[in-house]
Design brief:
- This protein has 86 residues and is mainly alpha-helical.
- It has a domain of 25 residues.
- It is built from 2 helices and no strands.
- The longest helix is centred in the N-terminal third of the chain and has 39 residues.
- The chain is rod-shaped, with a radius of gyration of 19 Å.
Length: 86
């Protein structure tokens, strides 16, 4: 069985991976925001339904990433609560 110190070290390593994942999520959200702006500029004035659908899809992707980030924050909080109890 692992010692308390080993468990804490393993949790810390996992949380570092989560932090790296959070940075990747933030980077993806920034890129999607940039894509939305580029798309809006390129298709300004177009009334085509596909343009609206593209914007809606990018907005949904951003919202999903935001929810993902929120879930990782909750996971970190829960893991830290657990290690604090050890």
């Amino acid at each position: 069985m692992a010692s308390v110190a080993e468990v804490k070290a393993a949790v810390d390593a996992a949380l570092q991976q989560v932090t790296e994942g959070q940075a990747a999520i933030q980077a993806a959200r920034e890129k999607i925001g940039e894509a939305q702006q580029s798309l809006a500029a390129a298709l300004d004035g177009s009334g085509n339904d596909a343009v609206g659908a593209a914007h809606a899809s990018l907005s949904q992707a951003d919202q999903s990433l935001e929810e993902c980030l929120g879930a990782t924050l909750l996971a970190v909080e829960q893991a830290q609560t657990y290690t604090a109890m050890l």
